[in-house]
Design brief:
The chain is an alpha/beta fold. Helices cover 33% and strands 25% of the residues. The chain folds into two domains: 23-134, Immunoglobulin-like, CATH 2.60.40; 142-334, HAD superfamily/HAD-like (Rossmann fold). The strands form three sheets. It has a six-stranded parallel β-sheet, with helices on both faces. It has a four-stranded antiparallel β-sheet with strand order 4-3-6-7, with no helix packed on it. Helix 7 runs parallel beside helix 8.
Protein backbone atom coordinates (compact mmCIF):
# COMPACT_ATOMS: atom_id res chain seq x y z
CA UNK A 1 0.00 0.00 0.00
CA UNK A 2 2.77 2.43 0.99
CA UNK A 3 4.71 1.61 -2.18
CA UNK A 4 1.61 2.31 -4.30
CA UNK A 5 1.11 5.68 -2.61
CA UNK A 6 4.77 6.59 -3.12
CA UNK A 7 4.53 5.46 -6.74
CA UNK A 8 1.51 7.65 -7.50
CA UNK A 9 2.98 10.62 -5.63
CA UNK A 10 6.33 10.37 -7.38
CA UNK A 11 4.67 9.92 -10.79
CA UNK A 12 2.53 13.03 -10.25
CA UNK A 13 5.55 15.03 -9.10
CA UNK A 14 7.58 13.97 -12.14
CA UNK A 15 4.78 15.00 -14.50
CA UNK A 16 4.48 18.37 -12.76
CA UNK A 17 8.22 18.96 -13.09
CA UNK A 18 8.08 17.97 -16.75
CA UNK A 19 5.42 20.62 -17.35
CA UNK A 20 7.35 23.27 -15.44
CA UNK A 21 10.69 22.66 -17.14
CA UNK A 22 11.62 25.35 -19.69
CA UNK A 23 11.00 23.21 -22.72
CA UNK A 24 10.84 26.32 -24.88
CA UNK A 25 14.61 25.87 -25.26
CA UNK A 26 13.88 22.90 -27.50
CA UNK A 27 12.59 25.33 -30.07
CA UNK A 28 15.78 27.42 -30.05
CA UNK A 29 18.38 24.70 -29.49
CA UNK A 30 18.58 21.33 -31.23
CA UNK A 31 18.10 18.13 -29.29
CA UNK A 32 21.18 16.02 -28.61
CA UNK A 33 21.88 12.29 -28.42
CA UNK A 34 23.54 10.69 -25.42
CA UNK A 35 25.15 7.60 -27.03
CA UNK A 36 25.35 4.25 -25.24
CA UNK A 37 27.53 1.30 -26.17
CA UNK A 38 25.56 -0.99 -28.46
CA UNK A 39 25.86 -4.71 -29.09
CA UNK A 40 25.09 -7.32 -31.72
CA UNK A 41 22.79 -10.31 -32.03
CA UNK A 42 22.66 -12.94 -34.79
CA UNK A 43 19.98 -10.81 -36.50
CA UNK A 44 20.88 -7.18 -35.78
CA UNK A 45 23.29 -4.57 -34.54
CA UNK A 46 21.54 -2.82 -31.65
CA UNK A 47 22.39 0.89 -31.60
CA UNK A 48 21.38 2.54 -28.33
CA UNK A 49 21.11 6.00 -26.86
CA UNK A 50 18.90 8.67 -25.37
CA UNK A 51 17.63 11.97 -26.76
CA UNK A 52 17.95 14.92 -24.38
CA UNK A 53 17.66 18.68 -24.43
CA UNK A 54 21.30 18.95 -23.32
CA UNK A 55 24.21 16.76 -22.28
CA UNK A 56 25.71 16.97 -18.79
CA UNK A 57 29.48 16.85 -18.40
CA UNK A 58 31.27 14.70 -15.82
CA UNK A 59 34.76 15.97 -16.69
CA UNK A 60 36.86 16.64 -13.60
CA UNK A 61 40.04 18.52 -12.63
CA UNK A 62 42.81 17.30 -10.34
CA UNK A 63 42.04 18.28 -6.76
CA UNK A 64 38.40 19.07 -7.49
CA UNK A 65 36.45 19.54 -4.24
CA UNK A 66 33.68 17.34 -2.86
CA UNK A 67 30.96 19.97 -3.34
CA UNK A 68 31.86 20.31 -7.00
CA UNK A 69 31.81 16.51 -7.32
CA UNK A 70 28.39 16.29 -5.70
CA UNK A 71 26.96 18.96 -8.00
CA UNK A 72 28.36 17.27 -11.09
CA UNK A 73 26.91 13.90 -10.10
CA UNK A 74 23.51 15.40 -9.22
CA UNK A 75 23.45 17.23 -12.56
CA UNK A 76 23.71 13.88 -14.38
CA UNK A 77 20.20 13.13 -13.10
CA UNK A 78 18.71 16.55 -13.98
CA UNK A 79 17.89 15.51 -17.51
CA UNK A 80 15.24 16.88 -19.84
CA UNK A 81 14.23 13.87 -21.95
CA UNK A 82 12.63 14.05 -25.37
CA UNK A 83 9.82 11.52 -25.81
CA UNK A 84 8.33 10.55 -29.17
CA UNK A 85 11.28 11.85 -31.19
CA UNK A 86 12.41 10.05 -34.36
CA UNK A 87 16.08 9.14 -34.73
CA UNK A 88 17.59 7.82 -37.96
CA UNK A 89 20.56 6.08 -39.49
CA UNK A 90 20.17 6.01 -43.24
CA UNK A 91 16.71 4.61 -43.95
CA UNK A 92 16.36 2.99 -40.51
CA UNK A 93 14.26 4.83 -37.95
CA UNK A 94 13.27 4.49 -34.29
CA UNK A 95 11.13 6.56 -31.94
CA UNK A 96 12.19 7.44 -28.41
CA UNK A 97 10.11 6.17 -25.47
CA UNK A 98 8.69 8.29 -22.65
CA UNK A 99 12.14 8.62 -21.04
CA UNK A 100 13.92 9.50 -24.30
CA UNK A 101 15.57 6.10 -24.86
CA UNK A 102 15.86 4.46 -28.27
CA UNK A 103 17.15 1.24 -29.80
CA UNK A 104 17.91 1.25 -33.49
CA UNK A 105 18.24 -2.25 -35.06
CA UNK A 106 20.58 -2.35 -38.05
CA UNK A 107 21.54 -5.22 -40.38
CA UNK A 108 24.47 -7.40 -39.37
CA UNK A 109 27.52 -7.83 -41.57
CA UNK A 110 30.13 -5.47 -40.14
CA UNK A 111 33.62 -6.69 -39.27
CA UNK A 112 34.47 -7.64 -35.66
CA UNK A 113 35.37 -4.78 -33.34
CA UNK A 114 33.93 -1.38 -32.49
CA UNK A 115 31.99 0.70 -35.00
CA UNK A 116 30.80 4.29 -34.62
CA UNK A 117 27.30 4.45 -36.08
CA UNK A 118 26.14 7.94 -37.01
CA UNK A 119 22.65 8.62 -35.65
CA UNK A 120 20.66 11.82 -36.16
CA UNK A 121 17.52 13.36 -34.71
CA UNK A 122 15.04 13.65 -37.54
CA UNK A 123 14.11 17.24 -36.67
CA UNK A 124 17.70 18.43 -36.96
CA UNK A 125 20.80 18.80 -34.84
CA UNK A 126 24.31 17.44 -35.06
CA UNK A 127 24.58 13.68 -35.56
CA UNK A 128 26.10 11.57 -32.78
CA UNK A 129 28.47 8.63 -33.06
CA UNK A 130 26.92 5.66 -31.24
CA UNK A 131 29.53 2.90 -30.67
CA UNK A 132 28.48 -0.68 -31.38
CA UNK A 133 30.51 -3.80 -30.59
CA UNK A 134 30.70 -6.86 -32.86
CA UNK A 135 32.40 -9.95 -31.31
CA UNK A 136 35.06 -11.93 -33.11
CA UNK A 137 33.97 -15.15 -34.84
CA UNK A 138 36.68 -17.10 -32.98
CA UNK A 139 35.39 -16.03 -29.53
CA UNK A 140 35.36 -18.91 -27.06
CA UNK A 141 33.76 -17.30 -24.03
CA UNK A 142 31.10 -14.78 -23.11
CA UNK A 143 32.08 -12.79 -20.01
CA UNK A 144 29.36 -10.99 -18.02
CA UNK A 145 30.53 -8.85 -15.12
CA UNK A 146 28.77 -6.84 -12.46
CA UNK A 147 30.16 -3.33 -11.83
CA UNK A 148 29.53 -2.07 -8.28
CA UNK A 149 31.87 -3.71 -5.75
CA UNK A 150 32.98 -6.19 -8.39
CA UNK A 151 35.15 -3.95 -10.54
CA UNK A 152 34.36 -0.52 -9.03
CA UNK A 153 34.64 0.42 -5.34
CA UNK A 154 31.10 1.45 -4.39
CA UNK A 155 29.91 -0.13 -1.10
CA UNK A 156 26.57 -0.85 -2.77
CA UNK A 157 25.67 -3.21 0.12
CA UNK A 158 25.27 -0.12 2.35
CA UNK A 159 22.86 2.53 1.06
CA UNK A 160 24.47 5.49 2.85
CA UNK A 161 28.02 4.48 1.94
CA UNK A 162 26.89 3.79 -1.62
CA UNK A 163 25.37 7.26 -1.99
CA UNK A 164 28.40 8.97 -0.46
CA UNK A 165 30.88 7.06 -2.65
CA UNK A 166 28.81 7.68 -5.78
CA UNK A 167 28.15 11.39 -5.31
CA UNK A 168 31.33 12.57 -3.57
CA UNK A 169 33.76 11.15 -6.14
CA UNK A 170 34.57 12.02 -9.74
CA UNK A 171 36.04 10.26 -12.78
CA UNK A 172 39.56 10.87 -11.46
CA UNK A 173 38.99 9.60 -7.92
CA UNK A 174 36.74 6.54 -8.36
CA UNK A 175 38.78 3.37 -7.91
CA UNK A 176 38.79 0.17 -9.95
CA UNK A 177 39.82 -3.09 -8.27
CA UNK A 178 43.19 -4.03 -9.86
CA UNK A 179 42.48 -7.76 -9.49
CA UNK A 180 39.20 -7.40 -11.40
CA UNK A 181 40.85 -5.40 -14.18
CA UNK A 182 43.54 -8.09 -14.52
CA UNK A 183 40.96 -10.90 -14.43
CA UNK A 184 38.83 -9.36 -17.18
CA UNK A 185 41.87 -8.71 -19.36
CA UNK A 186 42.86 -12.36 -18.96
CA UNK A 187 39.36 -13.62 -19.75
CA UNK A 188 39.15 -11.31 -22.74
CA UNK A 189 42.24 -12.87 -24.33
CA UNK A 190 43.29 -9.58 -25.91
CA UNK A 191 39.83 -8.94 -27.32
CA UNK A 192 39.08 -12.46 -28.49
CA UNK A 193 36.25 -12.97 -25.98
CA UNK A 194 33.54 -10.31 -25.51
CA UNK A 195 33.08 -8.69 -22.10
CA UNK A 196 29.78 -7.14 -21.02
CA UNK A 197 28.88 -5.19 -17.89
CA UNK A 198 25.54 -5.50 -16.09
CA UNK A 199 24.66 -3.14 -13.25
CA UNK A 200 21.78 -1.56 -11.37
CA UNK A 201 23.43 1.82 -11.84
CA UNK A 202 21.21 4.16 -13.89
CA UNK A 203 21.77 4.96 -17.55
CA UNK A 204 22.48 8.54 -16.47
CA UNK A 205 25.92 7.28 -15.38
CA UNK A 206 26.87 5.59 -18.66
CA UNK A 207 29.28 8.27 -19.89
CA UNK A 208 30.71 8.66 -16.38
CA UNK A 209 31.39 4.93 -16.05
CA UNK A 210 32.85 4.77 -19.57
CA UNK A 211 35.35 7.49 -18.60
CA UNK A 212 36.27 5.74 -15.35
CA UNK A 213 36.76 2.43 -17.17
CA UNK A 214 38.89 4.01 -19.91
CA UNK A 215 41.10 5.77 -17.39
CA UNK A 216 41.67 2.48 -15.54
CA UNK A 217 42.32 0.57 -18.79
CA UNK A 218 39.44 -1.76 -18.03
CA UNK A 219 38.31 -3.98 -20.90
CA UNK A 220 35.81 -2.03 -22.97
CA UNK A 221 32.40 -3.60 -23.33
CA UNK A 222 28.71 -2.77 -23.75
CA UNK A 223 26.90 -1.91 -20.51
CA UNK A 224 23.42 -2.93 -19.47
CA UNK A 225 22.31 -0.37 -16.92
CA UNK A 226 18.92 0.41 -15.41
CA UNK A 227 16.20 2.93 -16.15
CA UNK A 228 15.27 4.81 -12.99
CA UNK A 229 12.31 6.51 -14.65
CA UNK A 230 8.73 6.26 -13.45
CA UNK A 231 5.84 4.89 -15.45
CA UNK A 232 2.21 3.94 -14.93
CA UNK A 233 3.15 0.32 -14.30
CA UNK A 234 6.39 0.52 -12.34
CA UNK A 235 7.88 2.46 -9.42
CA UNK A 236 11.46 3.54 -10.23
CA UNK A 237 12.26 0.47 -12.40
CA UNK A 238 12.66 -3.27 -12.38
CA UNK A 239 14.44 -4.58 -9.30
CA UNK A 240 18.16 -5.31 -9.11
CA UNK A 241 17.70 -9.07 -9.44
CA UNK A 242 15.20 -9.03 -12.27
CA UNK A 243 17.18 -6.43 -14.24
CA UNK A 244 20.43 -8.38 -13.94
CA UNK A 245 18.73 -11.70 -14.70
CA UNK A 246 17.00 -10.31 -17.77
CA UNK A 247 20.27 -8.83 -19.04
CA UNK A 248 22.07 -12.17 -18.63
CA UNK A 249 19.24 -13.90 -20.51
CA UNK A 250 19.49 -11.35 -23.32
CA UNK A 251 23.25 -11.81 -23.66
CA UNK A 252 23.11 -15.60 -23.62
CA UNK A 253 20.39 -15.54 -26.27
CA UNK A 254 22.36 -13.02 -28.35
CA UNK A 255 25.42 -15.33 -28.32
CA UNK A 256 23.85 -18.80 -28.47
CA UNK A 257 27.05 -20.75 -29.21
CA UNK A 258 29.21 -19.22 -26.46
CA UNK A 259 29.49 -20.57 -22.90
CA UNK A 260 29.61 -17.90 -20.23
CA UNK A 261 31.59 -16.85 -17.18
CA UNK A 262 29.70 -14.69 -14.66
CA UNK A 263 31.61 -12.29 -12.41
CA UNK A 264 30.02 -10.50 -9.46
CA UNK A 265 30.01 -10.04 -5.70
CA UNK A 266 28.00 -11.36 -2.77
CA UNK A 267 27.09 -7.90 -1.45
CA UNK A 268 23.97 -7.57 -3.66
CA UNK A 269 22.78 -11.18 -3.86
CA UNK A 270 24.65 -12.03 -7.05
CA UNK A 271 25.01 -15.64 -5.87
CA UNK A 272 21.21 -16.04 -5.90
CA UNK A 273 20.86 -14.16 -9.21
CA UNK A 274 23.56 -16.25 -10.89
CA UNK A 275 22.15 -19.47 -9.43
CA UNK A 276 18.82 -18.68 -11.09
CA UNK A 277 20.64 -17.97 -14.38
CA UNK A 278 22.48 -21.31 -14.19
CA UNK A 279 19.17 -23.08 -13.69
CA UNK A 280 17.50 -21.23 -16.59
CA UNK A 281 20.41 -21.97 -18.94
CA UNK A 282 21.69 -25.48 -18.15
CA UNK A 283 25.12 -26.16 -19.62
CA UNK A 284 25.74 -22.55 -20.73
CA UNK A 285 27.53 -21.15 -17.67
CA UNK A 286 30.96 -22.62 -16.97
CA UNK A 287 32.11 -20.63 -13.95
CA UNK A 288 30.91 -18.06 -11.42
CA UNK A 289 33.37 -15.74 -9.65
CA UNK A 290 32.15 -13.71 -6.69
CA UNK A 291 33.98 -11.09 -4.67
CA UNK A 292 33.23 -11.24 -0.94
CA UNK A 293 32.93 -7.63 0.31
CA UNK A 294 34.13 -6.20 3.60
CA UNK A 295 31.06 -7.25 5.58
CA UNK A 296 31.57 -10.90 4.64
CA UNK A 297 28.95 -13.57 3.92
CA UNK A 298 25.55 -13.80 5.57
CA UNK A 299 23.58 -17.02 5.92
CA UNK A 300 21.66 -16.43 2.68
CA UNK A 301 24.94 -16.00 0.79
CA UNK A 302 26.35 -19.23 2.25
CA UNK A 303 23.20 -21.12 1.29
CA UNK A 304 23.19 -19.74 -2.26
CA UNK A 305 26.88 -20.56 -2.73
CA UNK A 306 26.26 -24.18 -1.69
CA UNK A 307 23.35 -24.41 -4.12
CA UNK A 308 25.54 -22.97 -6.88
CA UNK A 309 28.27 -25.50 -6.19
CA UNK A 310 25.70 -28.29 -6.28
CA UNK A 311 24.92 -27.45 -9.93
CA UNK A 312 28.43 -28.56 -10.96
CA UNK A 313 29.47 -25.08 -12.08
CA UNK A 314 32.90 -23.94 -10.88
CA UNK A 315 32.32 -21.39 -8.10
CA UNK A 316 35.06 -19.13 -6.74
CA UNK A 317 34.07 -16.84 -3.87
CA UNK A 318 36.94 -14.78 -2.52
CA UNK A 319 37.83 -11.28 -1.25
CA UNK A 320 40.43 -11.03 -4.06
CA UNK A 321 40.47 -12.64 -7.50
CA UNK A 322 44.28 -12.57 -7.69
CA UNK A 323 45.85 -16.02 -7.65
CA UNK A 324 42.66 -17.89 -8.53
CA UNK A 325 43.41 -18.23 -12.24
CA UNK A 326 44.27 -21.94 -12.09
CA UNK A 327 40.92 -22.85 -10.53
CA UNK A 328 39.11 -20.72 -13.07
CA UNK A 329 40.93 -22.19 -16.03
CA UNK A 330 40.24 -25.73 -14.82
CA UNK A 331 36.55 -24.94 -14.39
CA UNK A 332 36.30 -23.46 -17.88
CA UNK A 333 38.26 -26.24 -19.60
CA UNK A 334 36.32 -29.06 -17.99
CA UNK A 335 33.20 -27.54 -19.51
CA UNK A 336 34.68 -28.02 -22.96
CA UNK A 337 36.20 -24.57 -23.39
CA UNK A 338 39.92 -24.08 -23.99
CA UNK A 339 41.84 -22.42 -21.14
CA UNK A 340 41.87 -18.63 -21.15
CA UNK A 341 45.59 -18.43 -20.34
Amino acid sequence: MIKKVLHRTALSAERLLDRLQPRIRRKSAPLVIDPYYGYSTPEHLIVRGRVLAALRSSAAREGQGVLRNIWQMVSLFLTDEAAGVTVTHGETKAVTDEEGYFQLPLPVGRAPGWHDIEVSVADGGAPAACPVFVPRPDARLLVVSDIDDTVLHTSAYSLLRNLWTTFSGNVLTRRIYPDSAALLRRLSEQGRNPVFYVSSSPWNMHAFLAQVFKQADLVRGPMFLRDLGLSETQFISAGHGSHKGQSIDLLLNAHPRLPAVLVGDTGQKDAAIYLAAVRRHPGRIRAVLLRIPEDGLNEDDKRDLKLLEATGVTVIATPNFKGRETELEFGISRGGVTSCS
